[in-house]
Design brief:
homodimer, alpha/beta, 15% strand, globular, binds adenosine-5'-triphosphate, binds magnesium ion
């Protein structure tokens, strides 16, 4: 039974792409077959995988707009790890799709027809609650929300959960919150500690025990199309992403 | 002559809101009269100013959709500093405006009618290149682009400048690049140094000499609705925002 997980938060720069990329690597290293889906027109996930979005000819855009088979745009980027890449024309998808009656379910339909045996599908989304993010949420059964351990990021979670509830009610009753992932945590900074404590207090057991610390090599690894798991394998952040993978496979 | 500056970058979390807020404070402390405009449905700028978006009844939404006078939604948040607040219903503005023939120019029209004498208008935008950001770019004469000193942020600048050029060609010939602002710079991290060097190499004199360092008190100040200029006034980031204000007033 394939697990389909959307990673979303309309607040920008909270670690959505970084989480999809590194969690994908961690699951693949554990022998799971993983498909990464890049729904962000900025194609940060595609770039992190070493692919040049300007060179990609068949992308999610054609899957969503022209019913191209998802399997025909896939690229294998590492053992057990596949990518459905994004291109910048995805930015036009939201407008182009607005006249389709099934505009919110295009990705869901494509994933149901997917002729590839995978254990996990991880979807990266843009920093907005538009149609591309909605497509991820109707295709998913589980939602992972990265929250940066800073004040401005904390404030956006309420609006996001209200939207998730509406999607659950009207479009996808199987959508459930998988968990809230604290990211860019700085244990030596009091404000970061305070935000983490508030997250754990408000969301209780919905917060993963894995906490991703702020670590410069996480931001540097994608320069050479590497995950922090290979670039800085013994580091706290690499260890935290491995812990997260275990929590997701075995349950919290 | 009022200077109208849009602060934009579709990459999330690069310091757009933080820059509008702290630059606004720095200009106001220098005696300039400043209007801050919050075009992001997440209303991070509104929150940073100590306003609760859930309590705001008259916001930019009514200005853009129902021709409400901009001056009627303003709030003074500090000496010389005014705010046009956002609410979450701005998220619906992009769809609601799509049938208006002048949808790209609603803010520009509202600013032209503004019955308030200000020296600077600073506009915060959401992390996307949708209609709200387009409205900021057609209303502005100058564009400031914050770029976080990390790999993923660097890669998005090319797509943004392509869009700016299109806006300049087709909608707002007076739109010019004011400058690129390096943010969250970590002088002790080699990767951060490398990204800054690349920014300065590629964009030359378009990069401000002011460089905003990564400093935890910048993220903490908005918790008490303060700018880093009052919360941690002698700090490197506070000093950098003052330098930025001087550069903008007097030219680089
Ligand atoms: N644990 C971490 N430590 C240090 N840097 C990190 C960490 N996680 C992510 N980053 C860096 O922070 C920046 C923001 O992360 P990322 O791009 O993954 O966020 P995002 O939510 O996907 O952003 P967007 O909203 O633009 O899609 C990136 O430059 C990334 O490399
Ligand atoms: N110089 C800095 N040092 C430390 N933290 C910073 C700095 N500048 C901004 N931050 C923090 O980084 C996070 C992202 O900044 P901010 O929200 O201003 O970016 P943004 O581009 O407006 O994000 P979005 O794309 O979601 O609108 C915030 O939590 C902010 O407080
Ligand atoms: Mg991303
Ligand atoms: Mg912002």
């Amino acid at each position: 039974m394939k697990r389909i997980i959307a990673v979303a938060n309309q607040k920008g720069g909270v670690g959505k792409t970084t989480t999809v990329f590194n969690l994908g690597w961690a699951l693949a290293q554990l022998g799971k077959r993983v498909l990464l889906v890049d729904l962000d027109p900025q194609a940060a996930l595609t770039m992190s995988c070493g692919q040049d979005p300007y060179q990609v000819t068949r992308s999610l855009y054609t899957v969503l707009l022209r019913d191209t088979r998802l399997v025909s745009v896939l690229r294998q980027v590492a053992p057990n790890l596949y990518l459905a890449p994004a291109t910048s024309d995805l930015a036009r998808a939201e407008i182009a799709l607005s006249t389709f009656p099934d505009r919110a379910f295009r990705l869901s339909n494509a994933l149901q027809r997917l002729a590839l045996d995978v254990d996990f599908v991880l979807m990266d989304t843009p920093p907005s609650l538009g149609l591309l993010t909605v497509n991820a949420m109707t295709a998913a059964q589980e939602l992972l929300i990265p929250v940066q351990c800073q004040f401005l990021s904390m404030r956006g979670v309420r609006a996001l959960l209200e939207m998730v509830w509406r999607i659950h009610e009207r479009m996808n009753p199987s959508l459930a919150l998988l968990g809230i992932l604290p990211t860019m945590y700085r244990p030596e900074v009091e404000h970061s500690q305070a935000v983490l404590a508030e997250l754990q207090d408000v969301f209780q057991n919905k917060v993963f025990s894995a906490i991703i610390v702020d670590q410069p090599s996480v931001a540097e690894a994608p320069v050479s199309a590497q995950s922090v798991l290979t670039f800085d394998p013994d580091s706290p952040a690499a260890q935290a992403y491995r812990t997260l993978a275990q929590e997701i496979i075995h349950g919290k």
